[in-house]
Design a protein that fits this description.
3 helices
Length: 153
């Protein structure tokens, strides 16, 4: 059986040709746009793809690593587990930093940026004050962590 319109006009009515109507008026079929509607106008392009998001399979390992690393960092600092506490705390800090870096790279891949910094590929330069504020916050967190681990000894 062939897929297509059925020719049910058996009583001598108008017969359809297998490839459509034989005559068209003005080069446009009845179901297409009219001649006056075919003028070129300014078209508006709309993005139909959804915005990129981090999926659960991208977030789950990052969150798990961050939780394990922060627990490894926090427990030796809070309860001082003897001589090995500093090593475990530094290992936890390292795992936490790796999870944070992994999260930043995943966020950058889907197009997120840090607040105050330009979007990737925009051609704008980052403001030196924002970059220095981020560097100062990172440096102070590292100094406080190393200072706390060094006080365990």
């Amino acid at each position: 059986m062939e897929a297509g319109p059925r020719d049910t006009a058996h009583d001598g009515g108008e017969q359809l040709s297998p490839d459509g109507p034989d005559e068209t008026s003005g080069g446009v079929t009845d179901d297409g746009p009219g001649v006056d509607e075919m003028s070129p106008e300014a078209e508006v392009e709309v993005e139909l793809r959804p915005q990129p998001r981090l999926r659960i399979w991208q977030l789950a390992p990052i969150v798990i690593l961050a939780a394990v690393g922060s627990l490894m960092f926090a427990f030796p600092l809070a309860f001082e587990f003897g001589d090995g506490g500093a090593v475990v705390a530094m290992l936890g800090l390292l795992i936490s930093c790796c999870a944070a870096g992994w999260g930043m790279m995943a966020a950058r891949r889907v197009g997120h940026t840090w607040p105050g910094l330009p979007e990737r590929g925009s051609g704008r330069r980052p403001d030196w004050r924002v970059v220095s504020a981020y560097a100062l916050m990172l440096l102070s967190a590292v100094v406080l962590a190393v200072w706390r681990v060094a006080r365990l000894r």
